[in-house]
């Protein structure tokens, strides 16, 4: 079965992989680390190291004690705070989005970039391959993929050069017709190099892999499942059939895994937006008392708020992760609980830390989640805590945001409502000083405690008795919203209520007229769309009506 005929060659995908990313960030922060062997560690693990240290045999996720045996002069840099890594990672992703809107993040140090559109715009450019070429290249497809991928290699070189110039970072790149091939071929020449593969060599690259787990998308658990039906190598997978895989996986999954063994991957590059989860975790020595738990949660929350402020959105849900160690079984297991959080806690926080009162409220919410996970009346040993925010809403900001416009428009309506009530008071002799809307000396609207129902009832009865209807702000006609204004014409215009009057006065007359006319059109449109709300069937309305 020749699956290569089903593999589309029309795309050009570039996989960007930063070289020892954490180590590069630390070298930017401290240039003295450039020429010495050093590793970035978390707890007792060396998570990455620079290439000088790797010459001693130091590898990722190696124990510190083992690393120091290989390199006695190894410099260790603590890397448990991911803030700086995240910051630079998102800057790189944003930079890549200037080449294509289709940029998909993989962790902090990898990105897929679909440059198909950009390639189509450069088909008349030079077609010399830049970088390494995987395979013999004796046969080429006639669909034009050789030309497209060659141009892709030049774009990849431009991307790598611009990243180095902008951020002082080096990276590797793989250029191919699908995501799987781009990721695999990019790893064949490292560091700070790039490699291109043409579709006719895809099978050779996959077959050169030592294990099934070397194929991205096939992890340890899938390998164990495949092993149960006798598939233990890539060759076993290729000699199998999708129907055999369907005994373990759903049909789509079975076909996807089978195609991967032939280098076929039709998965699209999915544009990465803002993260759906913002969180962090911290492993620690066993904690056994509530005071320790609360202190750790307060520390995590402060760090998490820094990430939230940088993101700029407001979360609706908070989640707590707890890892408990069972001394009897010598095993650990994780549990999570989450709950909705009142968004008012984050009001006014934009760019700032939580006020003390809000922080206490949030800590109490988190501690309540902890008590739901752990029975604090019994002995416990907590070895990890994690906090994360999810389900975000965009924060409306700015003077001319929708929220600001509505607030300003409401102030205009409130002033008009007060004027109408004053007129009613003068014509009837009634005292309407107990109005639910009041004005401060600066003219802004303030919130007052609602009057008792008895007073509301008497006011409604008085209005009904006088057969006088005092219009509410929401029912005002357009003409009633125009304060001290004549009938609008092309020669009559005023400062819109959603604009700064001082700035408005400095504008040329034609721009003033245009702003006013735009405001009038929008206002009239909103009025036409306004739907009259039905009156509530409350006891108060019942007695007033009768």
UniProtKB/TrEMBL annotation:
Membrane in keyword set: no
Biased composition (Polar residues): 426-443
UniProt KW keywords: DNA synthesis
Keyword DNA-binding: no
Region of interest: Disordered: 426-454
Pfam families reported in the protein's UniProt record: IMS, IMS_C, IMS_HHH_1
Family listed: Belongs to the DNA polymerase type-Y family.
Name of this protein: DNA polymerase iota
UmuC domain mapped to chain residues: 13-219
Encoding gene per record: LOC108567862
